[in-house]
Structure formats: C-alpha cells, structure tokens
User: Fold this.
Amino acid sequence: MKPDLVQIRPGVYSVLLNGRSYTIHEAASSDWIALNAVEWERVVIDPRRRASGSSAAASAVRDVKAAMPGKVVRLLAAPGDTVEAGQGLLILEAMKMQNELRSPRAGVVAALRVAEGDTVSSGQVLVTLE
Amino acid sequence: MFRKVLVANRGEIAVRILRALRERRIPGVAVYSDADRASLAVQLADEAAFLGPSPSAESYLRIDKLIAAARAHGADAIHPGYGFLSENADFAAACAAAGITFIGPTAAAIRALGSKTAARQLALAAGAPVVPGTDAAVATFAEAKRIASRIGYPVMIKAAAGGGGKGMRVVDSEASLEAALRDASSEAERSFKSAEVYLEKALIHPRHVEIQLLGDNHGNLIHLGERECSLQRRHQKVIEESPSPLSALDPDLRHRMGEAALKIARAAGYSNAGTAEFLVDHDRNFYFLEMNTRLQVEHPVTELVTSLDLVHLQLDLAAGAPLSLRQQDIRWTGHAIECRLYAEDPANNFFPSPGVIERLELPSGPGVRLDSGVYEGWRVPLEYDPLLAKLAVWAPDRPAAIARLERALSETVILGIRNNIHFFRQLLADPAVLSGDLHTTFLNNFHYQDPPPPTGEALAAALAAYQPPSAPLPRPRRSAWRNS
Assistant:
C-alpha cells in the first residue's frame, strides 16, 4: 500500500498506511521526531543503520542506495579507494540532518554515481562497491 | 480582600497562582530574572517586576528585592508558591514587617515546624506517632550507637535542616555506622550549613502518604484527606494520587491520619495551607515525617477529588476570612493522578535537558488538567528546576484514572529537549503500579528503556513523511496562465 501523506502544518504530518493512522511531528532543528507521540532520534530510524548490523546480507551488497530523498553534501571517498566496513562514503543531508552514509562492508569503491550538490531520490544508487 | 498580589515564584506554580488571582479579579504581579523575561508567568500577569540575574541567589531568593517589588507595584500580599522562599520564616517575617501579607502560615509556625527535629518533638508532644529514633540531633558516635541498637537496624541518618535526600544514609549494621554518620554530617554541612543529623528507624518499603491541611487565622483547622506519593526518585516525587490505594483497603485510615495531622498543626498554631507527610508501613501503622508549610507541587490531585481550589482558599484565609468549610463538609469523589513532566533524560540517569521547546502538543479532553509553565518556543533555562508542567487527570476510579493519564500522555509531544513522557508511559504499564502496590524505593528497581526504533509499517509511515509527493499534481484542463 502506498502511504497517504497530508501535511497538517509545517513539521506535522498525518500518514495513512494500510488503514492505520500515524501522526509525525518533527523538531525544527534538532534530531528528534515523534511518531504517534513517541519520540525517536532521527538517526535511529535510518534504515541503513539498522542494516549495518546484519553482516551476512551486507557482504553481498554492491550498490549503496539512498534510503530517503536528500542532497549530497560531501564525498568522502573516491573510485579505487579501499574502504573498511562502517567507513564514511558520503554525507547526505536528509530530514534536515546531515547523515554520514557508511560502507556496509569492506571493499573497493568501484564508482561514485553522484557528485557534491546532487539531489537524489529514494532508492537511487549512490556508490558501487567492487 | 487584597488590592494586588505579588507572586514570588516562577514556572508553572507562578502561572497557577496568577490564574487564581485573575479568577478573583485581583491584579497579579509576576517577578522574573534575566532568564525568565519571556516566561509564561510574565505574559499572564497584569504587572511584572524584574528581580535580577538568573541565578536564584540573585533573584528569586532575594527577600529585599521581592519586598521592594511588592512596594513599587503597590501589592499588599505576596504568594510564595513552593520552593524558593516559601518555607523561609525570615521572608514571612520580612513581609509582616513591611505591612505585606504573606500568604501562608505565620513566621512563628514556620519556625516551629521548619527543622525536622523540632517538628518531630512537637509531634511527639502533641501525641502524634513518629518513626522511632532520636528526638534531637545526635552529638557523638557513642550516642548514635546506643540509640541505633535500641531502635534496631536498619537505621536512617538524616540531616536536621535537610530535605530532598541530602545528608541521608541508610545503615544496615553497626559496622558501617561511624563512617555513614561522618558522611551524612559533612554532606549536611555542605548542603544546609548545618552538620546536625539525627537517627530514625529505617522502615522497609514504606509508603509515602500525606495529609493536606487548611487553617484560618482564628484557630479552625480541617484536613482535605490524603495524597499518596510513594513513587519517588531520589526522594523526589514523580507521581502523586488521591485517594491512596490504601484507602480502599482501610477506609478509616484517612480519618486516623487526618486526626494525627490536625494535632500537630494545632500544636504549632498553624494557619493557611500545609501538608503533614507520613510514612506508612506494611501493617498500616503511620509515622509523621515532616510538615511542609506551604502549597505542595501535587496540590491539584486534592483539588480534583474535593472540588476545592486551594489557592482561592489560601487567599481567603490569608485575608483573614474564617474557614467556611467544616470537616464534615469535605467530600471525596473519584480518583486523581498527577505526573510531573520534566526536562530530563530518563535514558541518561534523568540528566536535566535545558533548551528550546521546538514543538509542543498538549493533551486535553475529559478529565484532563494541565498546569504548565511553558510554551512552544520557550527556552527551558538551566538555572532552575526542570519541571515543565504537571499533568493531572480525574476519573471515577483508579483504573480509569490510570487509563486516562495514559491517554493524555499519548497526546503529549515535547520535542527539542529530552523529557520523561515515555518514562511515565512505561511506569503506568507496570503491574505493581496498576495494582497500587507501591513503596518509596520502588523506582530504585524500575529500569526505564528508550522505546525500540520503529520497524515495518510504522517505519514506512515515518519515512513517508519525508517523501516528496509521489504523484504529480493533476494538470488543470484550462489554465489562465497557459500562453500557448
């Protein structure tokens, strides 16, 4: 099901998903949002962070994708670089917050698909690992 | 009645008192420090007076500045709220000397009850039960040893001038008595400028139950029943309720405790609002702890079950009116619970979390009362107690009141600073809390955890709020701006 999103006022959203109602409040400048009045630190709901725990899945990853729309602020690696698992690849500004996108595994950077200043959409491939 | 009243406090209690003044059509004067210029209290007041720099010692604790502000604004009474100078006999005396009514008991009554040892002696003389222990400060280790073996271990060492858990030690055996005595005494010296300590029998898992008192200037005193405040963290109450869950088991307990509290208040010549605090053991024996000679933080729960307004009554009584209520007029209906919303981080040892409240959603609806001192955009100062608001609910019975408080908390959002909303949501789901099986050390073994991150559909919903509209807006069939 596709979520039905309505902005109630700036920073407050109503989301209907599978018939259920969610209300989201975001803080103007800090790292917190509230989902149905329960607060979360924004980085915690970053799915990339959750994925980093599962190493079996991570070892197979080739394409590092954007989990949400945002803007590439800075590149931290170049093609040919050898990177460790958890090493920063680039900084993506999303949800008013700069998130460091980290490598899901050790490897070599095959290609950077974006440049600094690029706006990216959800699911777009940003970095390819060899 | 008074021409004008100055509120010598800040935060939610200043707002609470200013509201009562507005309801009585009495002009109210707020006071503020540098940090509080934009406070809700200043906004809701008719007049406001600047006290000085943010540290309390240079503002809210300055008797001279408060008296001067009252004079400058033509206030003929001062309400001290709670904390700050509310239990300071010198302040009450200074008000009297300046011809300003102090809305509270007399300086003499505050002095008689101000020290815990003095209050204990007064209670003993009045025939009210006290925790077995010393009647005066302990002078030597030998004396402490003799008393401890008489009343039996464990014993509690307490600071005579203390409060808030400072200078307190529980001692399980004689081996650790001497060191604990030394530690408690030096902590008391540092905190209260008095090293005097005394000994009490330490009760195992006692409950904290207190009696609200009300007296006029003509010797009439009544009680408004009990509040149970057993849920405490480091001797600070976090949830208060009325009636006590014990009242359902023992309907006469309120009467017995009320009579004991009245004996103490009579002996002290008490007037205006006050609270006698007791510990209650497993056999429902109760022991007088101390008297709070002021309005309590948790007074709203009493107001909700008695339908009385304590601040209105304080104004009447301070103005010299005789008590219009007799003991038999007091009726208790339903159940009320209050939780104290704090700017603190429950996942980080309740560390205070000052800063700007970036988003604030407040609860409302049936049975909800909110006493707040904050608003969206307010910067919670780091100089003061981090209490933001008190959320209290009323319902016909205790289970319904707990459900209502949970509902109200589920409508409350505070972003920008850490807060204890989710701590309360977890606490209210605890089986012991639901059954009313409470004691003052319960929270020592209650372990809060931040909620786990959202997964699945909830995560998808959260992320959806950050997606651009996926479908393009339908193009209008005819557009006034089309130029082709």
The first strand of chain B starts at residue 5 and ends at 7. Residues 227 and 242 of chain B are 5 Å apart (CA to CA).
